[in-house]
Amino acid sequence: MVTLTGETLTLMELKRILYDKEHVKASLGSMQKAAASRKAVEQIVQKGEVVYGITTGFGKFSDVLINKDDVEALQLHLIHSHACGVGEPFPEIVSRAMIVLRANALLKGFSGVRPLLIENLLKLANAGIHPVIPQQGSLGASGDLAPLSHLALVLIGEGEVFYKGERMPSLQALTKEGIFPVTLTAKEGLALINGTQAMTAMGAVAYLEAEKIAYQAEIIASITLEGLRGIIDAFDEDVHLARGYKEQVEVARRVREYVKGSKLMTKQGELRVQDAYSLRCIPQVHGASWQALNYVKEKLEIEMNAATDNPLIFENGKKVISGGNFHGQPIALAMDFLKIAVAELANISERRIERLVNPQLNDLPPFLSAEPGLQSGAMIMQYCAASLVSENKTLAHPASVDSIPSSANQEDHVSMGTIGARHAYQIIRNVRLVLAIEAICAMQAAEIRGKENMASLTKKMLEEGRKIVAFIKEDRVFSKDIEAMNKWLKENEVMITDQTHPTL
């Protein structure tokens, strides 16, 4: 059970909620803060004070005063009008993350919603009821209005959900779990949708997958090193300490652990003086990507525990301020950074694939073919990898450099952070496919060299990999091999967990 406080949620806790389906609850203190904040909203309505989103319209309509008898209708109209997302729905795991992150933000006690609303969000998560939320339609400022409106629909018994493997009307799933729809009252609709939880949820899922493939890229690259009889000297700790980036030092250390005891690795001058950059510079390139990942992780964990709606209620209602915490710029920039960093893992991987298959660059059978000429071997697998990295270069164009004014120029600068997060996830999917291709080619090359000469850790990886993809004895439909390896990488951890030994 993960306890939400509005202040302390980590990516590792979120990972347990998302992947292990661990249940969530709210801390008593955070619910008390939410209740106090709600009382302040009720007093504002009773007194007829002019406060944005509580007794006024929204966006450009902020100067339109709303009668206190219409505050419930105002919130319902808000959700209905803003639920205009389009496109394919977010993956269920992202929808689940949105529920949890929205609840966590409301628990900070600055949003003025009833505790009942938070309780129902947590019930959705614990029951595995995931709103169907279209991916497209958010500008990433004023919050993720369209996506979060589709989430809010479920709380009022409207919209659709994924539940136990089926897509169905939300009311049907709520009834099965004994969850009663709510009627939104003053500020609650606005509090539900005025936030960055779509981009942050998508970003968090993207980060968790990116972290995994960054580790996987290192052991796959290590097998490539063995298949190409790489020079171990370039991974000497002194080289990397001399530069001073801890992530670079750590990548070099992990590679040394992976190839420890290998009879396939060489010393400088033994076969050649130095390797190509795609081999020699693995610590420098992968290490730089780790630097970016660490930055992204820091920003995500701040945003996961942030109050991002508007207005915010302080001092039990004595201070209610309309600000701009809904603006997604911090996550937009982080997602663009993530895109570039992860795309580079595929860029260098594809170059290693080329070195594995190109007979002009190695002494292996051309294209790792069993019968070069009669059989093409891995020739077109490299084509596929090249296509994927090219697509990534387009997707890696920063979304955050764009802005389109909205709401009659009241909202005249937006982040496009949700687009950045979605593109980051697409890139990560492509990167995993490239790594799957490298893994297939690297295993083939290492086995041609003789798996008995491999390091114990890389050999273990190869043996596990061979349960997924067989040795290439003749040409076959390699698309099936790539998808099988991709699925294996997605579903399994391949990383060093205790600084010494990997979990395969």
TrEMBL record:
Subcellular location: Cytoplasm
Organism encoding this protein: Bacillus taeanensis
Recorded metabolic or biological pathway in which this protein acts: Amino-acid degradation; L-histidine degradation into L-glutamate; N-formimidoyl-L-glutamate from L-histidine: step 1/3
GO molecular function terms noted in the UniProt entry: histidine ammonia-lyase activity
Catalytic activity: L-histidine = trans-urocanate + NH4(+)
SUPFAM superfamilies: L-aspartase-like
UniProt keyword annotations, A-Z: Cytoplasm, Histidine metabolism, Lyase
Gene Ontology terms: biological process: L-histidine catabolic process to glutamate and formamide; L-histidine catabolic process to glutamate and formate
GO CC terms of this entry: cytoplasm
NCBIfam families hit by this protein: hutH, PRK09367.1
PANTHER family to which the protein is assigned, alphabetical: HISTIDINE AMMONIA-LYASE (PTHR10362)
Family: Belongs to the PAL/histidase family.
Name used for this protein in its record: Histidine ammonia-lyase
Record-listed cross-link 5-imidazolinone (Ala-Gly), residues: A141-G143
A Pfam family matched in the record: Lyase_aromatic
Modified residues (2,3-didehydroalanine (Ser)): S142
EC number from the UniProt entry: 4.3.1.3
PTM annotation: Contains an active site 4-methylidene-imidazol-5-one (MIO), which is formed autocatalytically by cyclization and dehydration of residues Ala-Ser-Gly.
